[in-house]
Amino acid sequence: MTETEKKRSALIIYLSLHGTTRKATEALCASLMENGVPTDVYNLSEFKDKGDMEKLNTMIPSYPLIIFCSPTYFHHAPPLFTDFVKNIPDATCDQAAAILSTFGGVYSGVIQFDLAKILYEKKYSLIGGIKVLTVHCLTFQEKKPFYEGHPDETDLTAIREFGKQISIRLMNKNRQRYSPIAFKDKPFLLNFIDDHIHKMKNLTWAMPGIKVKGEKCTGCGLCVKNCPANNITLEQTAVHGKDCTFCYSCVKICPSGATKSFLKPAAPAVKWLAKIFARYEEQTTQQVV
Ligand SMILES: Cc1cc2nc3c(=O)[nH]c(=O)nc-3n(C[C@H](O)[C@H](O)[C@H](O)COP(=O)(O)O)c2cc1C
Questions:
Q1: Is the distance from the beta carbon of residue 128 to the nearest atom of ligand 1 less than 6 Å?
Q2: Do residues 108 and 15 share a domain?
Q3: Which long-range contacts (CB under 8 A, 24 or more apart) does 113-118 make?
Q4: S-S: 166 plus which of 85, 87, 128, 289, CB 3.0-4.6 Å?
Q5: 2 alpha carbon to ligand 1 midpoint, in Å?
Q6: Does one domain contain both 38 and 110?
Q7: Are residue 227 and residue 138 in the same domain, yes or no?
């Protein structure tokens, strides 16, 4: 990268437990490159131990723009992602930040506002945010998963347009710096409920449990490798710890069907919640800022 290119480069850090945020991230990356912003992309799941995270943190100050891409879990970012953002270094002079969040067509929650607040306190200049409609990953066992096919071409077009806009904003020295309030797009009452959801430990206590049938487990280790929370160890069979984020990627990936969860009730619950939240939010991909 030449010195001029470095001055307008971007770093994308994403988390994707079922692959949809990765798809959205790839579209954003392609758009930034097309619009003259050399972009590096890192998957947070590959930076599992403390040493790795520190390595990623040392890279952050050298990019003029950092983009954070995360799925919505119970209206917030998964704790793993929020904790990571809380620990990044403060911004260097006029370093910019943008946010892409994905949501499964129920409710996009307060993830944009949560992350914007942390980044603002760390002195990043907030230049954009987009929420992207995706298939709801809790319904992956259904014949027709909720919002199957999303992000589709319309969603990807909106992401590309967002990429174009933040490229322009990045290069504009007199660009507008948004306050976290601009990322708050919900009525007061819903924000109040969200605060309480957060206090209830993100509702994980209400989620269907995950069981490993010891005799079926082949010890292949795929679930260990894929667990974003580093919560599974391999003894004779896969053993789950206490830090489960209930993404169910271990259930989805298990080739022998040893890791199981009864997710049938999730689909009607998701549809019911989506109907309620449809009164407050259009369930489409939208630029927040
Ligand atoms: C535990 C859990 C909680 C979720 N909470 C929400 C939510 O509050 N609102 C929503 O619209 N989608 C929710 N989703 C759906 C995900 O946000 C959506 O499927 C997202 O695209 C997953 O991203 P990924 O494929 O990159 O992992 C939830 C999914 C899981 C597994």
A1: no
A2: yes
A3: 113/180, 113/181, 113/183, 113/184, 113/191, 114/76, 114/77, 114/82, 115/68, 115/70, 115/77, 115/82, 115/85, 115/183, 116/178, 116/180, 116/182, 116/183, 117/180, 118/82, 118/85, 118/86
A4: 128
A5: 39
A6: yes
A7: no
> Does the Cβ of 21 fall within 6 Å of ligand 1?
yes
| Alpha-carbon dihedral 247, 52, 116, 139, rounded to 10 degrees | -10
**Do 76 and 47 sit in the same domain of this protein?**
yes
107 pocket-lining for ligand 1 (C-beta < 6 Å): yes
- Please indicate, yes or no, if residue 268 is contained in any of the structural domains: no
In a shared domain, residues 131 and 87: yes
Task: Judge if 257 and 155 occupy the same domain.
Answer: no
Is residue 105 domain-shared with residue 29, that is, in the same domain?
Answer: yes
Ligand 1 pocket member 102 (CB < 6 A):
yes
Which of 13, 44, 72 is the best mutation target for the ligand 1 pocket, counting ligand atoms within 8 Å of the beta carbon and taking the most?
Answer: 72
Instruction: Please work out whether the CB of residue 137 comes within 6 Å of at least one atom of ligand 1.
Output: yes
14-68 per-position pLDDT tens digit = 999 999 999 999 999 999 999 999 999 999 988 877 788 889 999 999 999 999 9
- Which residue do the tokens 């002195």 mark? 123
Give mean pLDDT in consecutive 10-residue pieces for the chain, a chain of 289 residues: 80 95 98 97 86 90 97 91 96 95 96 97 98 97 97 98 97 93 88 73 79 95 91 94 92 96 94 93 96
Q: CATH code at 216?
A: 3.30.70.20
- Structural domain includes residue 90: yes
CA of 172 to the centre of ligand 1 (A): 34
Q: Tell me how many domains the chain contains.
A: 2
Say whether pTM exceeds 0.85.
yes
